[in-house]
Amino acid sequence: MLVFYLIIAILFLGGGVYQLFVAQLPAAYAIHSFLVALYFYVTYHELRGKPFPRNIYVLTIVLLVADGLVNLLIVSISILSGIVSFFFAFLCFQSYRRIYRQRA
């Protein structure tokens, strides 16, 4: 199961590079793909039992929320992209609370 998280992260990373350099799409498409890849990479390490420090979770949450706002309000890539970013930010926030509440 962990392999699927890593494969998804690599596919989104590759998709972001493709969108940025080959397809010549606006950078917002690539940034969205890179942030989704970041979320899956962070989740992969969490499920392996080696979570990142708190700052990485906070940074990921902030970037995903910012990406969701940009996708919904400014760029209008699609409403679905913004909703996905907010959903992943919420899941990352729940992971952050679960991991660091146990350690405190």
Describe this structure in a few short sentences.
The chain has 104 residues and is an all-alpha fold. Helices cover 87% and strands 0% of the residues.
Outline the structure in words.
By secondary structure, this protein is mainly α. 87% of the residues lie in helices and 0% in strands. The chain contains 4 helices and no strands. Helix 2 (27-48) packs parallel to helix 4 (79-103) and helix 3 runs antiparallel to helix 4 (79-103). The longest helix is centred in the C-terminal third of the chain and has 25 residues, at 79-103.
Helix and strand topology:
Elements: H1 2-22, H2 27-48, H3 54-75, H4 79-103
Shape: globular
- Overall average pLDDT: 90
User: Which stretches are low in confidence, meaning pLDDT under 50 for 5 or more residues running?
Assistant: none
In sequence order, what are the helices and strands, one letter per element?
Answer: HHHH
Number of helices: 4
